[in-house]
Amino acid sequence: MRIGPLDVFPPVLLAPMAAVTDLPFRTLCEEHGVGLTITEFLSAHALVHGAQKTLDKMTPSLDGRRFGVQIFGREEDAMCRAAEMAVSIGASLVDINMGCPAKRVIAGACGSALMKEPELAQRLVRAVRTAVPDGVPVTVKHRAGWDDQHLNAPEFALALVEAGAAMITVHGRTRAQGFTGAASRAIIRRVRETLPRHIPVVGNGDVLTVEDDTRMREETGCDAVMIGRGAMGNPWLFRSIAARLAGHPDPGPPTVTDRLAILRRHLELMKVHSPPKRVIHEIRKACAWYTKGLPGCAQFRERTQHITEIEPILALADDFFTLRLVARAA
Ligand SMILES: Cc1cc2nc3c(=O)[nH]c(=O)nc-3n(C[C@H](O)[C@H](O)[C@H](O)COP(=O)(O)O)c2cc1C
To answer: Minimal CA–CA distance to 242: which of 1, 10, 8?
Structure first.
C-alpha cells in the first residue's frame, strides 16, 4: 500500500487505542510484523499547551521505524502546531481523529462529532496539510457516520480527500453504536468505491482472526486492514497475517514458549519506557494477556494483583510458565 510517498508493507495497521498502544505495545506489534503503528489520539490543545502527560505519549517508534501520530481537536491553529510537533519528533504521517465516540470528546465537538461538520473537518485537513512538509501524509480515521440515519462516510471521506487527506480509515460503526453491534463492511466498500483509486482506504472493525482479515479485504476491496482489540494480548495475529499476505504458511497460534518470550520482552520494554507510576499496572495487564486460556491463569492473575514490586511479579510469571512447559514436556 502506498500512502502518498510512503510504502507500507504488509498492509496491516495497528489501530490507535488510548491507554493500550503505548510504545512498548507498538514495539511488540512491529516486531511481529505489523506494517505501521500510530500513537493513541492526543489532544492538540494539550500538546500545544505543554501538558506533560500528553507529550509523554507522543513517542517515536524504536530503531528508526516509521510511525504515525494521531491528534484530535477542532481549532485550526492548535491542530497545525500539534501536527508540526509530531513531525518534529519524526512522525511519518499525521492522522486526524474524527471517529472517537467518547462523551468527553463529543462534548468538545471533536472526534466523531466532526462528521456532523464536514466543512470544518475539511478546513482542519486543509490547514494541517499546509502546516506539515509535503512528504508527510495527512490522513483521517472516521466512522460510518453519526447514526443509522446519517451514514455519510462516503461523501465525508471524499470531502476530506479533496482537502488533502492521503488515506482514509473507516471504522464501520456509527457514533451511536459506540463499540456495540457489528461493524459494517458494506459502508467501507462504499467508501472504497467513492474515493479515487490512488487514495488508500483502510478497513477497520471486528477483525480478530486471519479469516476476518481476509473477509474484510474481499468484501470491502480495502487497501489495508487496521486491527485494534484483536491485537490486544495477541500480536501474533500480525505474524500470521503478514505470512499469509506474503504467500507463506501461517505460523499459527503461539506456543507456551512464545508466550513466555513475549511476556519477558513486553516487561523489558515497559521497565524502560512506561511511566514509573503505571509500570505495575501495565505489567499486571500483560501477565493477564499472555496467560489467558492457560490452566491456572485466573489464580495467577489474582496473585499478581497483590504484588506491588516488579521483580516478584516476574519471578511468579517465570514459575507459572516453567510449570506449564514441564507439564507439556512430560
Ligand atoms: C481501548 C480503546 C481505545 C481506543 N482509542 C482510540 C484512539 O485513541 N483513536 C482512535 O482513532 N480510535 C480509538 N479506538 C478505536 C479503535 O482504533 C478501533 O477503531 C475500534 O476498536 C474498532 O476496531 P477493532 O474492532 O479492531 O477493535 C479505541 C478503541 C479501544 C477499544
So the answer is: 10
Q: Which CATH architecture has domain 2-245?
A: Alpha-Beta Barrel (3.20)
Task: Give the catalytic positions in this structure.
Answer: 100
Assign 213 a pLDDT band (cuts: 50, 70, 90). very high
Using alpha carbons, list the distances in angstroms from residue 90 to 93, 139, 303: 9, 16, 41
Atom of ligand 1 nearest to the CA of 204: 23
Residue whose CA lies nearest to ligand 1 atom number 18: 228
Taking the C-alpha atoms of residue 305 and residue 79, their distance in angstroms, rounded to an integer, is: 40
Q: How far from 173 is each of 100, 161, 182, CA to CA, in Å?
A: 11, 20, 7
What CATH number matches the domain at 256-329, 1.10.287, 1.10.1200, 1.10.10, 3.30.1360? 1.10.1200
User: pLDDT at position 330, please?
Assistant: 66
